[in-house]
Amino acid sequence: MVQRLMLEEDLSSYKWEKLDGGGGSLRIELDEKSSCALEYKFSDRRVAKGSYALVGFRGRRPFGGGAHRLGVDVCGVVFCKEEGAEDLSSCGKVVEAGDFDVTSSSPTFETLLLSLRHPASERPVPVSLDARMQPLDPRTDVEYGREGKTRTELSLRRQVEDVYSVGLFARVYKMDSKKSKKR
Question: What's the rounded Cα separation, in Å, for the pair 79 and 130?
Answer without folding.
Answer: 10
